[in-house]
Write a structure and sequence with these properties.
The protein is α+β, with helices and mostly antiparallel strands and 167 residues long. The protein is built from three helices and seven strands. The radius of gyration is 16 Å and the shape is globular. The protein binds ligand GNR and nickel (II) ion. Ligand GNR binds next to strand 1 and helix 2.
Length: 167
């Protein structure tokens, strides 16, 4: 097991478009294991491979109360989306920043599991929000980029100040 370092916004590597996984092999299963450990330790409810500087379409999440529902999604695709919802989001790559984002309320996702088997999942609530947040990471998008330019420039200034204080 290994903890992986998480890239911090505005690291340009967070804007990398991740490539589809071609084979769900031992290397991918190890990546999923390490990402899960990194997510639980952070702690966070989701993590995309992009955030640990691996540019393959892999994400993990666990939105359960007791952290017992780890889910891995390899090559996730949104089949359809419906409705709109507004919620406060945070991101392990943008520490200490919480902002309201509008997302689809329900999504249906198809992905491969750890064995390389396809599955489909209809999600709403926090699971739907988290899936959209993580799939955005795989497409090189960070949630703060949905905000106004003014808000984003204020956030960048706050992050720059934080980075100076951090050792
Ligand atoms: O831990 C996380 N919490 C969270 C809260 C609201 C909406 C999305 C998230 S995902 C985030 C972990 C993370 O940065 N995943 O990419
Ligand atoms: Ni994030």
């Amino acid at each position: 097991m290994a903890l992986l370092p998480i890239l911090r916004y505005p690291d340009p590597r967070l804007h990398t478009q991740a490539k589809p996984v071609t084979a769900v092999d031992a290397g991918i299963r190890q990546l999923v294991t390490d990402m899960a450990e990194t997510m639980y330790t952070a702690p966070g409810i989701g993590l995309a491979a992009t955030q640990v500087d691996v540019h393959q379409r892999v994400l993990v999440l666990d939105v359960s109360e007791d952290k017992s529902q780890l889910k891995a999604f390899i090559n996730p695709e949104i089949l359809w989306r419906e409705g709109e919802c507004v919620g406060e989001e945070g991101c392990l790559s943008v520490p200490g920043i919480y902002e309201t984002v509008t997302r689809s309320e329900r999504v249906k996702v198809r992905a491969l599991d750890m064995e390389g088997e396809p599955f489909e999942l209809e999600a709403d609530g926090l699971l739907a929000i988290c899936l959209q947040h993580e799939i955005d990471h795989l497409d090189g998008k960070v949630f703060v980029e949905y905000l106004s330019r003014l808000k984003l420039s204020r956030i960048k200034a706050r992050l720059a100040k934080q980075a100076k204080i951090a050792v």
